[in-house]
């Protein structure tokens, strides 16, 4: 039995999937956080939060990157950790530094830092010849205007250090560019209270379908578990609306996406890591969007598990403990699995793009449909706003199919769910 130190987590799917994987594999964990109430507030009135299944819960200032490794070293003297991991992107570099200090298995801290900073990722991949969009890092508006003119409109504007598609937009002229850049620079701290970089990344706008490649790297070898396709909402944002595994691609495009992802992981120097690499399949070939040095979110790991029997969250635990993960594909009876992500329709909200969820109609009928594996929906009373990132979901439906039609089923079920908003009813009623 191993004892893992888990440094922070997201409050979404991974906050439940990771504790489950740790316990089912016969291990235990200590949870380290700066604010336990951050997690408890996320599930008011619900069952005990899965992170409370920890053997120990320790609060300390996890944002103090100078003192945190020394503080964990003192905990290590008492608890004797066998591995360190995090389920939150904002703490992945700190987790790698902690593991290195304790002499525990982990990717190199500088590799994780490069993967978690979009500008550093771009530089390392370009140096290694891994194809990606043309790009420029800009510290002020003049640089941004010059870069956009050089690359050519439309361009994509990104923060270098945020997650879930936050503040990522396609812009078509200097007015939109200035607005997007101002939104990025005005946000001085992220959701965890960490100071942000004020620079912006200007990138070439790429066309073509987007996929992700799920990989496990250990002892210098990267194993491709599979390729997942992605559905995106309407521009100017890039909000994810669904995924299907495996991606409905021909073998050549699947292989090209996988090869590009492996090259990207290796170019960053990542090892001892489960990674989720996003690729745009352009008319000129695959182009790397980003490399995430952790398992995929939006329950993509569950899609993979339903189809292949490979549990990428368990693999993440194994890698953190220095163990060889079980990546053998098993017959599950499922050929495809898909998730549809429920977003608020801006047309249903009030004039300022907000509302209060009164309920979601159609849930009972969808839950009873064959092939529906999961249906999770937000509770009435939740404050809702128009979706500009992957943080505004009202729930999801996950379907599994013995054929290749899981995506069609998930989208059909999603279309039967009808959110209602109390604020809009009060105004119009």
TrEMBL record:
GO MF term list: ATP binding; ligase activity; metal ion binding
Matches recorded under InterPro entries: ATP-dep_AA_Ligase, ATP-grasp, BL00235/CARNS1_N, LAL_C2
Pfam families xrefs: ATP-grasp_4 (PF13535), ATPgrasp_N (PF18130), LAL_C2 (PF18603)
SMART domains hit by this protein: GARS_A
Sequence ranges assigned to domain ATP-grasp in this UniProt record: 122-321
Keyword Lipid biosynthesis attributed: no
Keyword tags: ATP-binding, Ligase, Nucleotide-binding
Name of the featured protein: Carboxylase
Source species: Embleya hyalina
């Amino acid at each position: 039995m191993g004892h893992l130190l888990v440094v922070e987590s997201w409050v979404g799917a991974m906050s439940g999937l990771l504790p489950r994987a740790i316990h089912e594999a016969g291990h235990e964990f200590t949870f380290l956080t700066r604010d336990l109430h951050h997690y408890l507030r996320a599930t008011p009135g619900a069952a005990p939060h899965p992170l409370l299944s920890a053997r120990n819960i320790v609060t300390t200032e996890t944002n103090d990157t100078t003192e945190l490794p020394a503080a964990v070293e003192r905990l290590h003297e008492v608890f004797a950790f066998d591995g360190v991991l995090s389920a939150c992107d904002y703490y992945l570099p700190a987790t790698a530094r902690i593991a290195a200090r304790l002499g525990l298995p982990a990717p190199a801290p500088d590799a994780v830092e490069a993967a978690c900073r979009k500008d550093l990722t771009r530089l390392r991949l370009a140096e290694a010849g891994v194809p990606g969009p043309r790009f420029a890092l800009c510290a002020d508006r003049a640089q941004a205007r010059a870069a956009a003119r050089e690359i050519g409109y439309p361009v994509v504007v990104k923060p270098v250090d945020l997650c879930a598609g936050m503040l990522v937009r396609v812009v078509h002229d200097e007015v939109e560019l200035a607005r997007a850049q101002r939104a990025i620079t005005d946000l001085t701290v992220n959701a965890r209270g960490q100071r942000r970089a004020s620079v912006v990344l200007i990138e070439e706008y790429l066309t073509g379908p987007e996929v992700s490649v799920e990989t496990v790297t250990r002892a210098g070898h990267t194993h491709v578990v599979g390729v997942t396709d992605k559905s995106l909402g309407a521009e100017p944002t890039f909000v994810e609306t669904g995924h299907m595994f495996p991606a409905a691609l021909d073998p050549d495009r699947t292989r090209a996406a996988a090869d590009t992802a492996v090259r990207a992981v290796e170019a960053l120097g990542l090892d001892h890591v489960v990674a989720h690499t996003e690729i745009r399949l352009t008319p000129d070939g695959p182009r790397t969007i980003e490399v995430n040095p952790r398992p995929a979110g939006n329950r993509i790991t569950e899609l993979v598990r339903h189809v292949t029997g490979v549990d990428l969250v368990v693999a993440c635990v194994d890698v953190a403990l220095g163990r060889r993960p079980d990546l053998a594909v098993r017959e599950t009876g499922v050929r495809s699995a898909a998730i549809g992500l429920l977003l608020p329709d801006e047309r249903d909200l009030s004039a300022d793009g907000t509302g209060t969820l009164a309920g979601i109609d159609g849930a009972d009928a969808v839950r009873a449909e064959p092939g529906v594996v999961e249906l999770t929906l937000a509770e009435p009373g939740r404050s809702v706003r128009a979706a500009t990132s992957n943080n505004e979901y009202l729930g999801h439906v996950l379907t599994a199919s013995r054929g290749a039609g899981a995506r069609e089923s998930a989208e059909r079920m999603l279309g039967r769910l009808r959110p209602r908003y109390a604020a809009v009813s009060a105004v119009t009623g």
